Amino acid sequence: MKKFTSSCGKMSILSLLSFFFFFFFFFLTYANSQSQYSLLYDQEHAVLLKIKQYLQNPPFLNHWTSSNSSHCTWPEISCTNGSVTSLSMINTNITQTLPPFLCDLTNLTHVDFQWNFIPGEFLKSLYKCSKLEYLDLSQNYFVGKIPDDIDNLANLSFLSLSGNNFSGDIPTSIGRLKELRNLQLYQCLLNGTFPAEIGNLSNLESLYVFSNHMLPPTKLPSSLTQLNKLKVFHMYESNLVGEIPETIGHMVALEKLDLSKNGLSGQIPNGLFMLKNLSILYLYRNSLSGEIPRVVEAFNLTELDLSENILSGKIPDDLGRLNNLKYLNLYSNQLFGNVPESIARLPALTDFVVFLNNLSGTLPLDFVRFSKLETF
What we know:
Mean pLDDT: 91
Low-confidence stretches: 1-5, 21-34
Strand order of the largest sheet: 1-2-3-5-7-9-11-13-15-17-19-21-23
Number of helices: 3
């Protein structure tokens, strides 16, 4: 019995020692993490005050002070686990170039400086923001070329450089931003090539490259039709020429397509009117010819504008199957024949525009009986 008691005592002492060492190790680890957290917080606070000074102490940052140490509560800042991850200064009349030390905020994932007056070229020091996922520099005064090595921002899922004075090519390296879901390059002075490599952006959901008037005559790359996650594609007023690729029917996720005000020619691909998710289709003011596809199964269409082309043939009866259609514009073409009675019975149709064609016959009486037309 004595030996048993002695053994139990030794075990109790060992247990106490183990608990003590565990508690001591936990305390040291916690204290160290708290110290690192405090150091990072102080460093980020100093960087933010430096940004304020660089921007010449604008009034909208009056609350950025050394005494106001809780910078995670500042409206321009968002934090994750106490570290700055988002910086947004939207429409704040900034006239200076971007601070070259911006990425001293090492955990930034979101940077938004849209609607300012920021001059200068694209700031390559942004490449130091290795965690950056969202970058919006739209509606500023940036100049020069979009850098050929922009793919250094490998984690970007959102990129907008729109409404600036960028010129030259859209770099092929953009096609290597594999995480990109939203790409906006509209209203720039781009006057070089539109790269087929954009078709490599397999996760892309929205592509806005409209109103690039300076682009040379450009064919729509067939590689774009590989983007089977793309929902929105706007490239109107951008000097597109040639035919719309027949493979556009492979873009099964497409919901909104606007290729209006270009120089597109040839026929409208049959596959375009088979896209089940398509709700808005604008192809007006081009040089499209031939007949409107006879088979229409894009039953989610709400707006269809094919006006100001040189389309011929009859208005397809199948358009009368589009029960969600609100807006149908076919004016200024070379269409002939009667207006199908099925169109007069479309329950949602409010705008039907067909003047400046060669149509004949009488209008269906159902336009009077059932129609909700506001524009005719």
